[in-house]
Each structure stands twice: as structure tokens, then as C-alpha cells.
Amino acid sequence: MTTRPPEGVTRRVRAALMHKVCGDEEMFALGASVARVVEMASSDDQGTHDLAYYVVSDMALTQRILRLSNTVQYRTASGTPVTTISRAISLLGFDNVKATALAMLLVDALDSGEHAGSVRVELEAALCASLVGREMARHSFYQGAEEAAICALFKNLGPLLVACHEHDRYREIAALTAGGKHTAGQASQLILGCSYDALSEAVLAEWKIPDVIVRAQAALPPTAVRVAANRGEWMRQVAAFGLDMARLMARSHEPADTLEAHTLLLRYGQALDLDKARMDAMFSAVQEGMNALLQSMNMEPAPKTEPEAASGLPNVLLLATLDAGEEDQDGVHPSGKPKNARELLLAGVQDVTQLRASGEGKVNDVILAVLETLYGALGFRFACVCLKDARAGQYRARVSLGEEGARLQAGFAFPAAAGRDLFHLAMENDADLMISDAGSPKIRDLLPAWHKELLPDAKSFIVLPLVVGKAQLGLFYADRTNTAPEGVPPDETSLIKALKGQVLAALAP
Prior knowledge:
Shape: elongated
Order of helices and strands: HHHHHHHHHHHHHHHHHHHEEHEHEHHEEH
Oligomer: single chain
Largest sheet: 6 strands, antiparallel
Low-confidence stretches: 1-10, 305-311
Radius of gyration: 26 Å
Strand content: 5-15%
Distance between the termini: 36 Å
Helix content: 55-70%
Structural class: alpha+beta
Number of helices: 24
């Protein structure tokens, strides 16, 4: 069962996030623009005129809509180029242009900044979900079904805003979800104090978006979906299905043939009148639509996987980066690492998150809490955090845990001047390392003399650099007296990175 932070803590986290995503000038302008486009009605010529005028008033938006109109998917049979927005609306359809304009507003407002990679992934999920909504609307008997594309577009608004404005929280939620014990809704509830869906609802309500769209963001029960009783419930189902389908398409080059696609069909098939043939056709149509949409925006598709960058490291250290292990359960590995390390790390992430969210944890408290988690969850015999001492021109251990901690802490120091040893290379490349066998010749060649003398019996160890911007602040170090061939699997890696991220956030000016 998920352990929630105290209500007062989550209320502060939620309030701070809402203030950030709704309070600053750029987000206010985005909300106003979104509300204006959503208000445009498709029932009369005035709505078409208003939409055309809105698009034409923005040169970049005009160019993108025209590029979309002239892609292979929409090009007219005669091949005549589309050169006016009125013609584009006629060709693409009012609701398609309206949803596309909203999508482009999100791209322009959010697709930039320090965390552009994560934001791009969430943007593409939103765009793809919108296209699923559009395809579903084509076969619906509900009047105004086209609005499902807008509902689906906003279904991913919560993750998108958190990735853009609270990236540390975004990483923590991803780490909890990767652990396999929490859904995205449960993890976001734990970290933010509200689920991603509830955040989407709250922001859209703040932007004065119509209630039918706001209500469509509400989470569905985890069981098989029943046939909707009305249009609003149907749009809620389509929004959820659209995002689930978009997530699958982001992970797989051949999504139609996966077990996940079969699971989606079992959950949504009866409610949305889907069979395998229709769902396969939808995968194809949505992918074609995504290609056209990204082409019109001059956007390259995000990769299906995002490998950790570790350029500049020797090959032997590239192989030692995290994510190189296999998961196991129960007991302890021969190295001393508990086989339930994931659960222990997850508990540590929750504790440290609550500590920081409470506003009562000082930097030293956060560092110590993370160090204790790493030490206990991964079964180390000695662990320390090593920070830069600018006056002394060296890095030295400031706090430690484990056997002979005081003696080893006193000796754990090395020059701040750049070098080609393992510790300097890790910091220069901001590469988290798990050395499973410190006795291998290539690793020993990269170990500095001070480490060999101070810790001659260290057979495996971990190095987590603390780098903010380009400033190398120090590192976490922890070791064992046995080799660790089990490595560190991806879910544990995500949790370790989330822990380190809390320390970086605490250290950042």
C-alpha cells in the first residue's frame, strides 16, 4: 500500500506547483490563448472566421498549418498547393485545425529549456493522444465527438507541466513508476499531493476551459471499461485510451503486435467498439498523422529509447555505468547487496521527498538521509559524501557511515585539480558508476594511488557525481569488500538517480 506524505506537506507541494504553472506571465498567456481557441465554435461561419483570423495573426502558426495541409496525408488529389488558411480549414476540417492550433500552442510554450528532452517526450504523447481522439471521433455517433481530440490532448497536461516546471518531481515520479509497485497516478499522488489527472483538471479549470473537457481528465477505474452512458463519459474514456495508446507507440516500433496492445484491447475494446483489425488500422493512421504533424512543426520524433549519455568516458567505465544489472528477489547477494534493494530504495526516496517537501530538512539532513538509504539499501560496508573544499584545493569526505568510518573519512581526500583517474572522469562526465569488480586490470589502472592505499580491500563500489550546471561539487562513494556481478537493474537505477536529484536540488543555489 502506498504511504502518503502528511496532508499538510502535500498541500504545500500542490499549492506551490499550481502557483508556478498558473502564476507566471508565460503560463497565464498560454492559458488565455488555450481558452480563446477552445471557445471558438464550429457551428457557424463566425467560428470559422474567428479561427482563420486567429491563425493568420500568428505567422509561425500560419506556416505550420499550411505545411500540415500540404503534407502527403492531406494533399489534394489534384496536387494543388494549399496557400490560404481558409482553404486549409476546409481541407483539414475546423476541429482538426482547432486541435492542431492548441497542440502547437503547447509546443511553442513548453518545448524548450533545460529539460527539453523530457518535455519533448511528454509533448509527443499529448500530440499522439490527440490524434487517437480524432480517429475515435470519426466513427462516433455522438454529436460534437470531435471535441474528444482536445480532451485527449490535455490528458497529458499534468506530466507535461511537471516535466517543464518541476523536473526533480517528474524524475521522482518516473522512478517510483519504474519500480513497478506504483501506477503513474499513485506515484504522482505520493510526490505531488495530487495525481497527474487531478493536476490537469485543476489547471484547465484555472484556465476557464469548459467543464466537459475538464471532467474528461478524471482517471478511469483500473478494471475493464464499460460502455459509456453519455457523451461526457465517452470522451473521458477516449482521453484515457488515447494516452495509453500514445505511451505504447512511444515505446515500440511495432505496437500493434505487442502484449500491451492486446491488454489495451481487452480493457477498452467493448466500451469503444474496437476489435483487433480496427485497432491495427488506428495504429497505422495515428502514426501517419504523427509523421505529418511533426513534419509540419519541423520536429524530429523522439527516440523510442533514451540511452544515458556518457561520452568522454573510457570504454571500461561506459560498461560500468548504471542500468547494467538483473533484478532478483529475497535474501542477499554474495556481494552483500539485499535482493529487495528496490523496495528499500523506494522507501528512501519517499522519506527524502517528504523531508524536503516539509521545508524542515536542511542540506546536511538531506545528504545524510540519502547516504543512509544508499548504505542500507545496497549493502555497503563504507559510504561517504565527498565535497569540494575550495580553500584547500581538494575534495574530502564530510560525512560517512560504516566500518572504520572515522578513519576512512579522515583519509578520503584527493586534489581538486583535474586528473584522468576514475573519480575525476566520473565528475567531468557526470556519469554514475557501479564498479562490480575493482580488481580488474583496466579498473585498477584508473584508480588513484590514494584510493588503493586507503581502501585496498574495496572489491566493488559506486560513484555518484554531484554536478550542478558545470560546477563539480563532489560525489557520493560507497564500497563493499566483495565483487558485485549482479549489477544495478534499471528500476533501482531510476531510484538512485532520484535520490541524487534530491541532493542536487538541495545544493543548487
